[in-house]
Amino acid sequence: MNGACMQGPIVQLTDVKKIYHLGASQIHALNGVDLSIERGDFVTIMGSSGSGKSTMLNLIGCLDQPTEGTVKINGTDLSLLNDDQLTEIRRNNIGFIFQQFNLIPTLTAVENVEMPMIFSGIPEQERRRRAMEFLRRANLDAEFAEHKPNELSGGQQQRVAIARALANSPPILLADEPTGNLDTKTGKSVMDLLSELNLHGTTVIVVTHDPKIAAYANTNIVLRDGEIVEASE
Predict the structure, then answer these.
(1) Do residues 87 and 168 make contact, with C-beta atoms less than 8 angstroms apart?
(2) Is the pLDDT of residue 112 over 60?
(3) How many CB atoms lie within 10 A of CB 154?
(4) What topology does CATH give the domain 39-55+92-232?
(5) What is the DSSP string of 22-89?
């Protein structure tokens, strides 16, 4: 399950519903969503708080499962997989980029990038070589590779996070408000980097509140009350 299937959409949601139970109440986070994302797409998912954006991202990222409907990654129906198989799908297919960076504070930049490769069993010397290459691709100067997160600016930390997301060369990058903690200039440089990765074939899916980010995408999806109310190209 390493993403070898190359036919059909890379991400497909079919009649997906997600219901959360809070006591006697039900919250319909997603309500019958249909969505196909093709390989090499750059997609933004927009909507107000509570619209279902994060729920959709968690389903695509194999971090949650729908109450009803199917989610497929590279043609694989996630509902048919056990926890170990879902972990393998995540590791081989998906890189995550978060607003809060989520770097390990006790590790250097290069060690943070190496972490996913440790779980993939890549030998130490090869891990270091690849980590330095991914930092270079993320436009972080080599002089910062041995710095810990608290020694880096917000933009530099996000570049480390992007390099870490690239560590296992996933075909899909999921970004949750990747510029939310950055100033305008730094945020633009991060989006330019994601756009460049997309031009080289990576499928990029960005959850955002910022309409300016939609300009980078070839498909813009707007959610409201758990439903897609707009999908434009």
Answers:
(1) no
(2) yes
(3) 16
(4) Rossmann fold (3.40.50)
(5) ETTEEEEEEEEEEEEE-TT-EEEEE--TTSSHHHHHHHHTTSS--SEEEEEETTEEGGG--HHHHHHH
- The confidence band for 8, taking pLDDT boundaries of 50, 70 and 90, is confident
Cα distances (angstroms) measured from residue 53 to each of 2, 27, 68, 130, 179: 26, 14, 17, 32, 16
- Judge contact between 71 and 78, C-beta under 8 A: yes
- Are 126 and 118 in contact by the 8 Å Cβ rule? The answer is no
The per-residue pLDDT for range 19-45, each reduced to its tens digit, is 999 888 999 999 999 999 999 999 999
Q: What is the DSSP letter of 216?
A: G
User: C-alpha distances in angstroms, 161 versus 33, 52, 174?
Assistant: 30, 24, 12
Kindly report, residue by residue over 48-94, the tens digit of the pLDDT.
Answer: 888 999 999 999 999 999 999 999 999 999 999 999 999 999 988 99
- Residue 77 CA, distance from chain mean position: 19
pTM of the model: 0.89
Q: What per-residue confidence (pLDDT) applies to 6?
A: 58
Q: Cα–Cα distance between 27 and 4 in angstroms, integer?
A: 36
Q: How far apart are CA 65 and CA 103, in angstroms?
A: 26
Q: What are 55's two structure tokens? A: 């729920």
What ranges do the domains of the chain cover?
Answer: 39-55+92-232
> What crossing angle do the helices spanning 154-165 and 124-137 adopt, rounded to 10°?
130
The mean of the pLDDT values for the chain is 91
